[in-house]
Task: structure prediction
Amino acid sequence: MNLLKRISGPFILVFLIIVARYLFPNKMTFIVEIITFSIYIMGNDILYGYMGMVSFGQPFYLGVGAYAAALYLAHIGHDPLIAVGLALIAGVLVAIILGPAYIRLRGDYFALINAATCAIGLFLVEKPLLKITRGDDGLWFRSRMASELFFDLRQPAQFFWFAVIILTIVLLLYRWLDRSVLGASFRGIKVNEGKMKFLGYNTFMIRWIGYTLSCILAALAGSMYAINFGFVNPSITEPARAAEVLVATLLGGAGTVYGAFFGTVAFLGIKDLVSAFFTRWEFAVGIITILVCFFFSKGVWGFLSELFKKKGKDLSMGRPS
Amino acid sequence: MDKKENQKILSVKDLSVSYHKLRVLFDASIEVDTGEVVVVVGRNGAGKTTLFRTISGFLKKDGGSILFKGEDIGGLWAYEVALRGLKYIQQDKHVFADLTVKENLELSSYATKDYKWDGVLDHFPQLKTLMDRKGGNLSGGEKQMLLVAMALLGKPTLVLMDEPTEGLAPHVINEMKDSIKRIRSETTLMIIEQNLPLTAEVADRVYAMKEGKIVAEIRDKEEIRELKFEKFL
Result:
C-alpha cells in the first residue's frame, strides 16, 4: 500500500498527459515537447533546486546528447535506441571529464564556467566540427532512422508513447531520488555543506554525482529532441537559451519532484499561448517570472500544494510533508 | 609504549596554520587522553577555533602533525576525519533548518550507519518530544542538543565542541553542563569555552591560548577549580 502511494504521483501525472493527448489531438507535438523539456528541466533542478548550483550552460549538456544521437544516426547507424544509449554515454563521459574540475567552483564561478563551456560547445559544432555536424545547416537524418521491433519512432504518434515510457521511468527514479539518502544529501549540501562534512559526508563526491545525473538527464532530453525532429542544428546549444531552463525551474518550484514538470507546462504554455497573439512572448515570460520571484517563490507546484493543503486536500502525491 | 601513550587519543605537535600569508597559529602542541574533558580557553582571536578547525580537517596546516589514535590525520578531508571518529561541532549552532529533528538525526545516521538512537536520546530526553519540529524552529539550546546528538551517532571517540554554551540562557547552560558530564562516560571531549566557572567544573585539563600560541597547560584539578589559568588570558 505504501509503495502504491509512493509511486502514485508519477503515474497520475503520466495519466494526465495521456488524457491531454486524446483531449487535444492536434497538440500532440506540443505535449511531446513538454515531456522532453521537463526531463531537461529535471536535470537542471538537481543542480539548482536540490544542490543550489546555478548553471548558465545547460544547453551545452542538452547539445551533447542531441549531437551524440544525431551524429550516430546521420553517419553511422540507424537504430534510434542505440542513439539514445550513446547520448547517455556521452552525458556520463562529459560529467566524468568536466565534473571534477567544475564542481570545485561555487556560486558565480560555477554558473559562468558553464556559460563559457556552452559558448565553446556552440563554436565547436559550428566551426572545427563543421564537416561532421554540417554547421548551421544542421544534420538531417529522419530518413536514415530504422523502425524498432515494437516502435517506429519516426511516427509522431508512436514517439509520443516512447516519450511517455521514458518520462514514467525518469519520474519514478526522480521520486525515489527525492526521498533517498542521496536526495537528502543534495539538500544538505545546499543548506550547509560544512555541516554535511561534519557528519562524515564526502560532499565532493555527492556534488559530482548530482552533476552527473544532471548531465545524463540533459543528454537524454537532447537525444529525444534529435530523434523526435530528425534534425539537429547548433541553435540547440545557444548560450542565450540557458535562461529558459532556469526560468522553467523557478516557475515550477525548485527542488521538488513535480516542480520541473509544472514549470515546463507553465513556461511552454505561456510561450505557446502568447506567441499566438504577439511575437515577443519573452516579455510575458519575463513579467510572470518577476511575479513568481516576488509572490510565489515556491513556484506553481509549491503554490498548488499549499493551496490544496489549506483546503484539507493532500497534493503531496505520497511525499511526506 | 607506556600506559600513558596507550591512553593518548590525540597528539598535536608544533601545529602552525595561516590564512593566506597571515600566520594565526604558532607551533601549537596539545595532548588529549582517552576519557578526558579538555578545555581550551582564550580571548577572541586567540586561535582556538582555528585550532579546532585544523584538527577536524576543515583547514589545512602549514606545519606540524596531528595524530589521532596514532594515525596522522593532518592531510585528511573533514569528512574522512569525521568518519574516523573525530567529530567537530561548530560554534554556529546551525542545524538543517528545513528538516525535522528526526530527519536531522537520520541524516547523521545515514553517514555513520548508526541507527540506534536510544542511547543518544537518553542524554537529551527533550529531543524525544521535538522529533517532528523543524530544525529552524528550535531554541538555541535545543539546536545545541540536537547537534551534540547528531555528533554522538556513530559513537565517536573524540568530540570537539566549539563554545557549546555561547548565547544560551543560564538554565540551558546548566542543562548543557549536565549533558557534558553524562556524555563524558561515552566519549572524550575537547571544548572551547569562555564560561570559566563551567570550565572549572568539567575540565580535567585546560589549555590557555593567546595570540595563536598555547601559553599554558594546567592539569592540576585544584588549580583548575581555582581558575589559575585566568592569569594567562
User: Anything to note?
Assistant: The interface with chain B takes residues 181, 184-185, 187-188, 191-192, 194-204 of chain A (CB under 8 Å). DSSP finds 13 helices and two strands in chain A.
